[in-house]
Every structure is written in structure tokens, then in C-alpha cells.
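Figure S4 source data
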Amino acid sequence: MKMSTGNTVKEIISKRIGDKYYKVHHNSGLTIYVYPKEGYNSTYATFGTKYGSINTTFSLDDGPQIRIPDGIAHFLEHKLFENEELDAFERFAKTGANANAYTTFDRTCYLFSSTEKFQENLEILLDFVRSPYFTEESVQKEQGIIGQEIRMYDDSPEWRVLVNMLKAMYHNHPVKIDIAGTIESISDITVQKLFDCYHVFYNLNNMVLCVSGNTSLQEVLEIADKSLAPDEKYKIINHFEEEPYSIVKPYVEQKLPVSVELFNLGFKERASEIPDSSKDLAVKEILLAILASATSQLYRDLMDKKLINTSFGYELFHGPYFNAVVFSGESRHPEKTADIIKEYISNAKRDGISEEDFEMVKKAVYGEEIASLNSVDSISNSLVDCHFSNREFFGYIDEISSITFEDVQKKLHEILDVNNCSLSVIRK
């Protein structure tokens, strides 16, 4: 339906669970999602841009390729909180809201949660993200601050075990580069480069606003209509070097002060610019839960052998032109643990999985997704993820319920190549 302001609103209802949300094509170019939750006290809002650490080479429409320094997306996230007067954190503190931001490999998001003064908080969020303020002095100061952050992450076992694995897996893709960049790369960041990147990637046509909780469509649109002017629309083309299917090397280790060794075992998968569909993700999630959740035989065997503890887990790690399945945790014998995981996968490919396990896990995965709808932050973050991946939010829940045993058996033979994985270990 059309709104009087020129906004287009679509109501999306799940017949399966009875919930609904609204998708708005705002006249400014921004896409807005509003998921009202009656009876909830809190509201959670996320304002995100499809711009992360991997977007270092791009072009506009049919223009020339532009290369920017590694780490500039993360640098921008830090700088946008600043203002000539009060920074954004100080403004939120006055309203009692909890605010934060984060940069990942493929997006940057700014968020707040509050139990009161929602409209004022949303105005602050839209205002500071849309009001860049950079000076030579502040950029030089930030280079020192982020330089210290980079050094801190260089000494973080949990971060190094991941980055080392990515470097062992990926030949060319920028996912292997630290999100914050390097000391050398951030030294090349200038005021002009920050403004250039801001005006490209913080265009409202490249962004999304997701709000869930104690609010209404009318309340959100009232603030958006007042706060947002239209942005010119253009096409951003991100460029990536061709990435081979093969890994760089099967093993990498680093020594850091830890009480127990850490490991990441990553299985590299084929990837493209097109993200996995809701069905693909649902099948993978069910398959991995069958193989490695706390109820799996693998988990029990590893625990019985005292090779892992409750930190053990798995993750679907994916984005534009990168895709992997990662098993991680603490282990006193990480190589032995990795060998058992690979052996278990090989045996499952040979012998198949249990249909009884499939039915049990499918119900558990479905139940977890339904339970996540009781969390306003989970809803908001999932809406962001679905928008940037071109998936419909309720579609994932519908797909879980329709997945068959044959779907999971087939997927098992398509992924988790035990000859194409990298083990990263942090030694004591």
C-alpha cells in the first residue's frame, strides 16, 4: 500500500506463527522494517549499511575501480560517533538508552535498545549516522586509538585463531585481512578518503533500518519522514579477485598466553556473490546440528575422551564470495580433535545419517527459531541479515519445517570436504 508521504508499505504475515512485520520502501531510498511486539517493554533498533572490511575495491555505475585502505569501514564506524559538541554515546546516555555499533566483514551496524523515549532515541540514531564530522586532528588521534586496538587484537587468542584460519584458507579474498586493517593501512586513511567512502556506502539506498519491540509502524515512519532526505540512487559494484576452491595450507599455529589450546577447523566451500537461499541455510543448520550439536554422537565422544569442553561449537561463516563451515573450541589435543571430526564426517558420508536423529534435530532447530521471536534484538539483527542476503524473514522458518531427510543427506555429500580444510591452533 502507498502512504501519503510517498512511502510504500508491505505487510508481511506468517500464517504459520501468527506474527507480522512491515517492510517499507521509504521515499528517502532507505528500506525500513518494523516488527511490533505487543506487551513488550523494550524496543531495539539497528541502522546498518552493506559495507564491511571486505569492500575495499569498488566502482560506481560504470566508473573506474577505486581501491581504499584496509580497515576504513571500521575506522568510519568509530568516527561517526563523534560530533562538534556531544558525541552520540553522551546523547544516548541522557535518554537512558544502551547504544553500540559493530563492523563485520560485510556490514556496519549502529544500534540502541531502550525502554523509554524511543522516538528521541531513534532521532539520535538517524541523526548521528547521517552527520559525518571528520577533521585532520581527529583522524590522526583516531589512528593512534585504532592502532592500539589492532595491537590488542594481535594479542587476542580468540581473534588470532580465526584470522589465522582465514589466512590459511583464502588465497586472495579480503576476508583474510583483519577487520580493523593494519597499522600501515590505517596510516593511509585521510579525511577525504573517509568522506568519499561515507558518501558511497552510507547512501540510504545501500542501508536498512530494522526496529522491533514496543513500537508501531506509524511511530517509526513519523521519525523517518522528519529525519531523512532522499539520496541519489546509483549502483555500487564490489570487485573481488578470483578465489580458488583449494585452501592455502592445511595447518597454522601461533603461541600466545592461554591456559588451554584453542582451535578453529574450517571447511572451505564454493562461494559466489549470490548468498545461500533460506532453504540452503536451513538444510546446513539441521545437518550441522545432527553432526556436532550437544546431543550428537561426535560431541559425546569428544567429551568422553576429554578432548573438548562446553566451548565447542560450529558456525556457518559466509558472505560475498566466501563460504565455510567452522568448528571451534578449546582442546588439549587440537590435532587429534580435528582428526576425529574429519573421521566422523567421512563415516557419515559413507554410512549416512540417522533418520531418527534428523527428525529430532529438525524439531529442535525449528523450536529455537520460534523461541528467537521472543527476543527483540534477535529479531532486529535477523531482519538486517535477511535484507542484506535477499531473504524473507519468515521464509527461513517455513523452510525448516519443509526440509526432508533426503535434502540433508544430499547436502552432506556437497559440503564438508575433509581434503579441503584448514586447522588453526593457538598453543600455550
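Figure S5 source data
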Amino acid sequence: MLSLPDKGHIHLIAVCGTAMGSLAAMLRQLGYRVTGSDLHVYPPMSDFLRGEGIEIQSGFAAEHLDPAPDLVVIGNAVSRGNPEAEAALERRIPYLCLPEVVRDLFLRQRRPAVITGTHGKTTTTALAAHLLQSAGRDPGFLVAGIPRDFPRPYQLGSGEYFVIEGDEYDSAFFAKYAKFLYYLPEVLVINNIEFDHADIYRDLSEIERAFAQVINIVPGNGLVLANGDDPVVSRLLPRSPAPVQTFGLGSACDLRAGEIRPCEAGQRFTAWRGGERLGEFRVEMTGQHNVRNALAAVGVGLRAGLDAEELGRGLASFKGMKRRQEPLGEVAGITLIDDFAHHPTAVAATLQGLRQAHPDRRLWAVFEPASASNARRTFEDRYVEAFGPADCVVIGAVPRPERAGQDPPFSPARLAGTLEQSGRRAWHLAAADDIAGHLLDSLRPGDVVVFMSNGAFGGVQQKVVEGLGRAPSPATPAAGTQHRA
């Protein structure tokens, strides 16, 4: 276990990442002196950290470790050759990766609910935390995103549960293990398992092995909450030494949703636990994937002792996450939405949900292939089907094509051409200004536009919002005319 002096000094290398920045602030709340460094120090993270009382240094230098801190936390974006990491190694300064620190300082004395899966982790983590918070349980939580229901992406809390997003990505250059293996799950949620992170996993079997490992460390008095509709998840469950409860839409699931129907602000569904009807619930999110996310969070809430009334109230009041189907507003009769989807399955689920919610409106998908996997051709062919619910598709540039390494690269132009051949209207435009200009020239009242990226996308979202706000209102389509192309 980690042992530090009271008010000791902790230095974080690559502090401006979302998770590292949250950890820095959490450590500061515990009373430690916290410093950090990063190559790119700029708002909003720099403002957030300084506002939390954290000293930040721009760039990496061995001198940043003078005098030696009591502990160095090395982020997973840091490689050998980083001067601060090299100094920590050479001078034998104690160092750990982020999940080790989270485990020892924040999870050991709590009841961790660890939310895992290829898709839906962030939304489900925030929703489970919100259910507990709205029921007065004051949970701790750490989520890799910006929840709209909380002022920060973390909370120490005083309640017994700590809800944490369990990432399958590796932990540090010296800890090539999935982060979730450190998090001591008492409750383990597995939303789904698919091949992803082609930069660190060779194939699906390697990802399955990591999930099999985390299932194996859930204690016998713990609980595995697993998506019973997912065949890969299902085949791992017989290995669990802990009790298992499944959730999903299938009739065999222990926690099941049915009677799903859209409503004005999202969708409604009825939930059953075994043969018991829990009630009718509402969430302000579209898509069956978000019903499953809600069921997973309900499972955590039931484990913590919440009743159906508390669950219903919490689900209905959940505002969601920034960049997860986040409404940007309606401008000139055009609905604009920001989303984080960056995998074919997530893209398809997002678009299917939006198509269900807006069946007669023209749907635009504006996509940036910004993930490390999307620098490669790995998923390129799958995007043809994933974009099926959209009428018009705009594909941006790959921001960091060098991440493809020796693998065949992703080609936005080739994908746009294949989409055109399949009957979609599709364009490849490399620059954010060109994408914004094309949209401003082409959009008309009634259109729904969803921007999908796990990167910055050159600020194209705001460019379009501002451009529509300045432009004269486009002509309204004739009465009775459908908006779909």
C-alpha cells in the first residue's frame, strides 16, 4: 500500500490529461502539495488546475523534480526518454501509475463499483453516480468526461460507494495492464466487449483475456453485472467466482427492459427484475444502447439499496454528459448535437437512436476519425454499415495519421467514395473550416446534425453554431415535404 507523509509532495507527469487532472485535484483535496507538468499547458485544463491550487510547469525537465517529491505519478501518455520519467528512475524517486494511486488512496476503504466495457462506460459511470447522489448516498466517483449533473468529473464523497470508470487501456509504460485491474471491484459492470484499441491489443482474444482477469478478482461477496445480450460477455461469465446478474433486453436477462418507446425528451421503458415489475422509467437519451446503460446503472443502484422511486427520480433527472449526445441547440430550425462516438458500433448506435427519435428529418453525420484505431484501416469497412441511418455523411481528416505505424492507414476519401456507392451522400473534407462552410451552405430547416469525434475536430461544432446564428434564416421547406434526402 502507498504510504506518504502528511501534506507530502506529489508530482504528476503529463498532468493535463482528463484523468490525470482530476487525480491532481483529488490529491489536493486530501491535503497534499501537488505539482504537475505537461508539454501542452493551456485552457481550460490549465485554468482548472491552477484554480484547484496546483502548480503547473510547461514542458518536461529533470529540474522539475528538484527537490525530489515524495511520489511521482507517471501518466500513460509518457514514454521512456521523457526527462522527468528518466530522472525519477535514475534517482529512485518512488513512482506509480494513475490507477495504483487511485486504488491505494481512494478505493481501499470504499466499496468500488467499477464500470467497464468497450462502449458506454462514461455515461454509465456518471449515471450510476447520479442515481446514488440524487438518493442522498453521497458517493465518490471518477469519470473520464464532463458530467452535466456535477460541477466536476470527480467527487470524494462520504458515502460507502465509489463509482469509477474502468478503462481497458493500459496504465503506463511500466504497467502494460488494463487500468480496471487495479480498481478492486466489489461491483463490476461489463457493458459490452468488442475489439478496440488496435494500438495496444492485437485482436479480440487479447481484450477478452483482460476482461477475464478482472472478472476473476471480484470477491465472492461481490457482484458482476453483465450485459446478457452481448455474446462475448456471456461466454466469459461462467468463469466468474462471484455471483452474476445479467441486464439487457433479452427475456433471459435478470434485469430486463421492454416496452421501449420514444418520448418528447428521450425515451421511456419498463424494467423488470426477474418476474418483478420495477416500474416505468424515463431517460433523456435516445437509442437502445442507452437503455442498457440505464439498466446497468439501475443494477448498481439496486445493489446499494435504492428503491424503484429513487431510481426513477434519478433516471429522469439525469442531464447526461458533455459530448455524449449533448444538445448544442436548435439554430435556424436545425438541431445540432455533439457526440463522442469513435467506433463503428458506437456510431451505429448513436445514429440509430437519432433516426428513431427523428424518423422524418434529414440526418447528417459529421465524423472525425481521431482515435488511434481510426488511424488504421482496421474499422474502415465497418463504417459503411454504421453510417447507414444517416442521409448525409461528412468525413474529416485523420488528425494524427502517424499513429497507424506500419499498419495500412485509414482513408477518409476512400470511405466517402464507398459510402457514395452504397447510396449515401458523402463528402471528405479535410479542414474544419471547409466542413463548416459546406454545412452552412447545405443545411436547411428540419435537419439534424450530429458531430462525432473523440478529439477536438478543429472546433467545427462551434463554427457551425456561430455561422448559423449569423446567417439569414434558410427558406422553410414546403408544407408536407419530408426532410430526408
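The CA atoms of residues 73 and 98 lie 6 Å apart. The chain has a mean pLDDT of 87.
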